[in-house]
């Protein structure tokens, strides 16, 4: 066989046929696999580059499961916070029911002053009085009796007089009973005791302030103006009067002090009654001063001032009473009297509140996914790239009742009055604010994780597309190549046959 020698034409045609068959096989393999690079032999650079891209895409794809779990952990925590906010709102509703419930005491702690004559809501001090009581009138005297018959020793006509606030009243026996604010004259024989009292009131402008009480004259201005008595000594003696300026009797509470110890957690009260700066003279002023000590005041028509604990501190005993105002009894105030029906209602509300707190604890414990609970102190760590350098750590919180600073309540101690209910409401408001803040934080983190999840998905697509661009075959081009190579192969076979025929012709000649 080694001695067989092919002609140049046959050898050339045979080599062409072999090359075409090899290219055709390669093209058919590309069409069958869809790849133009199936091994490193096809294109080392493209093959290994594509392999690296595919490996990275695979690694990132493996991280997507963890990222997806992280999304679910965050959503579980967010669902838990939504439920916790609902439970806190329910607890707030219960506490608000306490504020709307009847006061738990049939009688609140209170103190009442003795009646202050003439005191009103606009003038707690009581009126100032200016009265001079002197003089003796004969037995059986009346305001309708004449001065001549009523007085033990009648004045001498034309010589006796009284001076009231600097205005002179002259006594005569010649007729005329005219007295104005500037003074005047009274006829002893016709003027009555009543005329004298009216004359004095005309001068002082006090209307009907001066009166006759039994056998005594009561002379008064009826205002805060001093009453000045003067005149002839003999006349004063006959009326039993003494020349003098009467001293004003100040209002009952003028300059007096009142202290009340701290009540229901309020601020101790220190009051000075009067009309000066910082002093108290009206009911509105008094209530303003008492408000900080959980107290409020009212005044009866008789002028008695009552100070009682407000609904905020209905369960408290009014603080110790002190000061110089003797109309108030010094010492500790009386304790309030419980109302059994109202207290039973409040005890029921305490039980309802505590039940809500139990649900807060169980809800926080159940807000987990795949063993991770961001509401029970766990930490979630997410890895976003194949090198482990791109990560996000989310530190959990503890949102049970202790973590939210909420405490169970005690019957007989809590929800007794508005103050205790408001204290609970304040803690619930703080808890609600904390929950909203954490919900915002979780929402932000969830947004970050979802963005990275979408980024990784898109990146995987980019990597796989890049790999495909390096290795995938163009089926249209490969189909055309296959058709061309098949045609070439047919031509090569025909050419080889022709070459063989020429050799056969030579053999025929040799025969």
How would you characterize this protein structure?
The chain has a 6-stranded mixed β-sheet. A 3-stranded antiparallel β-sheet has the order 2-15-14. It has a 3-stranded antiparallel β-sheet with strand order 3-9-8. With 511 residues, the chain is an alpha+beta fold. The model has no long low-confidence stretch (mean pLDDT 84). Helix 2 (44-100) runs antiparallel to helix 7 (340-366) and helix 2 (44-100) runs antiparallel to helix 8 (418-471). 31% of the residues are buried. 45% of the residues lie in helices and 14% in strands. The longest helix is centred in the first third of the chain and has 57 residues, at 44-100. The protein is built from 9 helices and 19 strands. The protein folds into 4 domains: 8-34 and 473-510; 61-102 and 342-462, Up-down Bundle (f41 fragment of flagellin, N-terminal domain), CATH 1.20.1330.10; 105-122 and 252-338, no CATH class; 131-245, no CATH class. The chain has helices at residues 8-33, 44-100, 147-150, 193-204, 233-238, 283-291, 340-366, 418-471, 475-510; strands at residues 105-107, 110-112, 131-134, 161-164, 167-172, 178-180, 183-187, 211-213, 216-220, 228-231, 244-245, 257-260, 269-272, 295-299, 305-309, 321-322, 337-338, 379-383, 391-395.
């Amino acid at each position: 066989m080694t001695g067989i020698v092919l002609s140049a034409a046959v050898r050339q045609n045979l080599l062409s046929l072999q090359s075409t068959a090899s290219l055709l096989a390669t093209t058919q393999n590309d069409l069958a696999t869809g790849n133009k690079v199936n091994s490193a032999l096809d294109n080392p650079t493209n093959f290994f580059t594509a392999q690296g891209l595919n490996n990275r895409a695979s690694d990132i794809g493996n991280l997507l499961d963890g990222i997806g779990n992280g999304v679910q952990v965050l959503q579980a925590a967010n669902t838990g916070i939504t439920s916790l906010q609902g439970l806190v709102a329910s607890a707030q509703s219960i506490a608000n029911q306490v504020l709307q419930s009847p006061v738990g005491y049939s009688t609140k702690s209170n103190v009442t002053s003795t009646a202050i004559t003439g005191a009103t809501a606009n003038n707690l001090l009581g009126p100032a009085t200016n009265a001079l009581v002197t003089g003796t009138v004969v037995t059986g005297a009346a305001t309708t009796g004449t001065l001549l018959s009523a007085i033990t020793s009648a004045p001498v006509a034309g010589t006796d007089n009284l001076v009231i606030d600097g205005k002179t009243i002259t006594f005569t026996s010649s007729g005329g009973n005219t007295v104005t604010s500037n003074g005047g004259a009274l006829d002893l024989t016709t003027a009555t005791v009543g005329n004298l009292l009216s004359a004095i009131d005309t001068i002082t402008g006090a209307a009907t302030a001066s009166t006759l009480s039994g056998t005594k004259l009561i002379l008064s201005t009826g205002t805060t103006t001093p009453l000045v008595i003067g005149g002839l000594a003999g006349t004063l003696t006959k009326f039993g009067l003494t020349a003098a300026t009467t001293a004003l009797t100040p209002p009952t509470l003028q300059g007096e002090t009142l202290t009340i110890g701290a009540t229901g957690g309020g601020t101790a009260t220190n009051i000075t009654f009067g009309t000066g700066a910082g002093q108290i003279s009206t009911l509105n002023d008094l209530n303003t001063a008492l408000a900080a000590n959980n107290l409020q005041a009212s005044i009866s028509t008789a002028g008695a001032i009552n100070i009682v604990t407000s609904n905020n501190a209905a369960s408290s005993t009014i603080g110790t009473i002190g000061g110089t105002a003797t109309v108030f009894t010094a010492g500790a105030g009386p304790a309030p009297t419980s109302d059994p029906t109202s207290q039973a209602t409040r005890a029921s509300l305490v039980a309802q509140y505590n039940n809500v707190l139990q649900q807060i604890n169980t809800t926080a414990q159940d807000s987990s996914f795949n063993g991770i609970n961001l509401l029970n102190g766990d930490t979630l760590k997410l890895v976003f790239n194949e090198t482990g350098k791109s990560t996000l750590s989310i530190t959990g919180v503890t949102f049970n009742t202790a973590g939210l600073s909420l405490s169970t309540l005690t019957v007989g101690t809590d929800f007794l009055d508005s103050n205790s209910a408001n204290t609970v409401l304040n803690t619930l408001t703080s808890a609600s604010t904390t929950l909203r803040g954490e919900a915002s934080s979780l929402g932000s983190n969830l947004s970050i994780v979802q963005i990275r999840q979408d980024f990784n998905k898109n990146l995987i697509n980019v990597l796989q597309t890049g790999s495909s661009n390096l290795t995938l075959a163009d089926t249209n081009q490969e189909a055309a190549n296959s058709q061309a190579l098949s045609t070439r192969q047919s031509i090569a076979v025909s050419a080889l046959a022709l070459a063989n025929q020429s050799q056969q012709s030579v053999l025929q000649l040799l025969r």
